[in-house]
Structures are given as C-alpha cells and as structure tokens.
C-alpha cells in the first residue's frame, strides 16, 4: 500500500492533467472529479498487468472511464424529471433543448480540450528540448524507415525501465532502445526527436492528439500512435 501511495504522489500532475482534460478546465482538490480520478489511478495500480500495454495509457483510460460513469450518474440525478415534457414557448421537449446545447457545448469543449492538450504537450516536450517543428523535421519520410521507427516506439512504450530512464534523464536511452527493437542506432539517432515525442504522446494519455495521429497515419499506412 505504501508503494501505491508513493506512486500516486509521484503522478499527481498526471492525474490532475487527465482530470483537467476531462473537465476542459483546471481542476482543484475540491472537485469531486479529482477525487474520483485519484481512486481510478489507485485502481489502475492494483489492476495493471503488462498485457494491458503502457501503464499510463491504461491509467488514463481508466480515469476517463470512471469520470464518464460519474458524470452519467450526476446527469441522471439532475435531469430525470420532465425531460420529455414540451415547453410552452415553442413546444419543444426539454431533452431536445438539452441536446442542442450539449452539441454546441461539446464542440466548444472539444476545441478547448484540443488546444489545452497541444499546449500541455508543447510544454512537456520543451522540457526534453523538443519542439513541434523538430518533430516534423525529424519524422521519417520513407516507408522502411517509418516501420523501423514504429518498432522502436512500440518496444520503448512497452519497457517500463526505459520509460523511467527517459523521464529521469530527459534523454532517449539509445543503446537500450536499439537492443530492444533491433533498429540500427544510426536510424534512431537520425529520428531521435520524433521517436522521443511519440513516446511522450503514447505514454502520457494525450488521447485527442493520439486520435488525430491514428487518423492521419492510418491514411498513410504508417504508425499507429
């Protein structure tokens, strides 16, 4: 239990970030959603196994799932009366009005969440000396190289020790990554900033950015982030 508590303390910024992304605003200690996210992270620690992939991706998924469950319960409690009664002014049911408002809110919230996620990722990458322009400049252009980078990223994301060293030193452990993936170190060096950025995206719960990358790269037949 002590180890789990220590891990939770170490990952408080990650838990706050996931909660804020869900709320599309900053979260505080007083938010119920933050408490639920803490419980979900603890649940992720207890239920994690290597078969589930990268731990932080699993934890992010579980946090979001528990927050969605909580939100649905809250909505049911607050809106279970008179949702389908027609309103006197225009004869529309309240549920229709809510749906229109929800659609508009979700569109605005998605834009804000995307902006927040990009800004957060840019700040994280800056700590590793990488910018979005670096990622673009160092991204693989040939299919063969793309496949090699894909394998390196997959192996890196599945190796907890490598990720721990990456976060601790803020440097990509080239020798270990080359040994794990079988990719030539020269190739890894050439695309280091691209690989580093993709590992950060894969293991830190950037679901919106990952979804965009999946869409773009699926059309290219390339890496699934």
From TrEMBL:
Gene3D superfamilies in UniProt: 1.10.1740.10
Pfam families per the record?
Sigma70_r2
Q: Pinpoint the RNA polymerase sigma-70 region domain residues.
A: 7-76
Please name the GO terms of the biological process aspect recorded for this protein, alphabetically. Answer: DNA-templated transcription initiation
InterPro entries per record: RNA_pol_sigma-I, RNA_pol_sigma70_r2, RNA_pol_sigma_r2
- The entry's keywords: Cytoplasm, DNA-binding, Sigma factor, Stress response, Transcription, Transcription regulation
Q: How, per the record, is this protein's activity regulated?
A: Negatively regulated by the anti-sigma-I factor RsgI.
DNA-binding region(s): which residue ranges?
Answer: 174-193
UniProt short sequence motif Polymerase core binding, positions renumbered to this chain: 32-45
Where does the record say this protein resides? Cytoplasm
GO CC field: cytoplasm
Q: Name one GO molecular function term.
A: DNA binding
Report the main location listed first in the record: cytoplasm
Instruction: Please name the SUPFAM superfamilies in this protein's record.
Output: Sigma2 domain of RNA polymerase sigma factors (SSF88946)
Quaternary structure and interacting proteins, as annotated:
Interacts with RsgI.
**Family (UniProt):** Belongs to the sigma-70 factor family. SigI subfamily.
Role noted for this protein = Sigma factors are initiation factors that promote the attachment of RNA polymerase to specific initiation sites and are then released.
The protein here is known as RNA polymerase sigma factor SigI
Classification from the root reads:
Bacteria, Bacillati, Bacillota, Clostridia, Lachnospirales
